[in-house]
Amino acid sequence: MKAIIVGGGIGGLTAAAAFHQRGWQVEVFERAPEFTEVGAGLAVQPNGLRALDTLGLGDHLRARGPADPPAGIRHKSGRWLIRNDIDDLKRRFGQWVTVHRADLVDLLRAAVPAEALRPGTGVHHVRSDGTVTHSGGTSTGDLVVGADGVHSVTRRSIWPRVPGPRYVGYTTWRLIAPPQPVEGGVETWGSGDRFGHVPMPDGRVYCYMMANAPIGSRSGLDELRERFARWHGPIPALLNSARKDAVLQHDTYELPRLRTYVSGKVAILGDAAHAMTPNLGQGACQALEDAVTLAAAVDTLGVGAGLEAYDRVRRPRTQMIVRRSRQAGAAAHWTSAALTGLRDAALPLLPNSVFGRSLTPAYTWTI
Known about the structure:
InterPro entries: FAD-bd, FAD-dep_Monooxygenase_BioMet, FAD/NAD-bd_sf. This is FAD-dependent oxidoreductase. By secondary structure, this protein is α/β, with parallel strands linked by helices. The protein has a single domain (about 1-165, about 255-365), classed as FAD/NAD(P)-binding domain (3-Layer(bba) Sandwich). The protein is built from 13 helices and 19 strands. The strands form four sheets. A seven-stranded mixed β-sheet has the order 6-5-14-15-16-13-17. Strands 8-2-1-12-19-18 form a six-stranded mixed β-sheet. It has a three-stranded antiparallel β-sheet with strand order 3-7-4. It is globular, with a radius of gyration of 20 Å.
């Protein structure tokens, strides 16, 4: 049996590793010239690590970047709006990990035979019968897995009339700052903008920023330093220490609900199926879940029944996570003084357990 994987990112390589471990022949098409990841930091949450455990890779990642759960949310003045009970979260859900995205890609790539990897191969079209047209010719598989991101060629090929991704109204910057002390993983909210920082194992600090902006607008590090100059420490220091070429900016998209993730011999996963806002940090984790679930279902039940089972299990769950992620970040992007004042007064009154309760369905996943 052969699985063709379109896309060599986290979801695609996880699917390739999962099918390879089950004895399938795999072929992974990646349009970039090499299998790597140009992103910044990545927090892998307990459910994502549990997915990697099914491949025997979870402990490798735990050893590389053990981390605490998020500490909470601050106001831009520095006062706490929500402060999580970190010990309780670890006790209930398990380990968190923070690594560079490239570290996870490297780990997954090593679990796939080198001869199965096809870098520099752009996919032009995918058919439901398992045929893939690409820059190197045409390939056919018993299964095609579309793991080719928010602007997926696989999705557009199979469902050409389905609405495309929707810009959610804010853009996102990411960077890694040089080593310096920070107080755990903290997100800070302003009015229509926010700043998050997460310590990495080597002392560097993964930073992300989001701000309301017209689609396609671009700002560099100088503008970010000015925007956040009067926010609480260590935010200005983190930005002042960063290099201009370290900043990545991407507009933030969400994919409308799809009626199915499968058609014929084709399945889509990760951002290709359910691109979500980054508010819960669940994008990569859901792709990991998708990939191992798909491989288990198809290998156990056969392609037809396995794809039906995959769609039946994964679509409701991932669309629930998409919705919760959208809701979790909405209040951070309010710009009304009355609404932000009400938000800042109400959030500290919530019990410390509210964060854990809200994400219990995500963190407690098992295959």
